[in-house]
What does this fold into?
Amino acid sequence: MKDDPIDKRLAEFINNYPERQRLKIMFMRESEGVYQFGTKRIAVRVEKDKINIRVGGGYLSIDEFLDQYTPTELERLERKDPLKKFSEKIAVQKTIVGKEIRENSPIRGSPMRGNTSPGRHGSPNKR
It folds into this structure.
């Protein structure tokens, strides 16, 4: 916001940050001095042109905060993302049983065997 000095300073910091790839979590403004950082609601203040973030009973500089909390928040967000969860699950799990390969798929439902591909009606032997 234009009239919010904290928001202005935070925007300047983000826009001029030399290692932009490290800024993987966005700061979403909720109200003056209050932001959402991933799953964490944080209080931000600017003192002597330095951005400080309240943690516990004290404050961390924004650089210390990013170093400490970015990895944790990335992990939390990945766990909450249902699409990422689904894509990381094995859609087709292959297990070797004797000399044949058996595939199990939660999408397809039933187990399939080796390189036989089921026909239109689900049975490799039907014609």
In short: The chain has a mean pLDDT of 77. The chain has two domains: 5-80, 82-113. The first helix runs from residue 5 to 15.
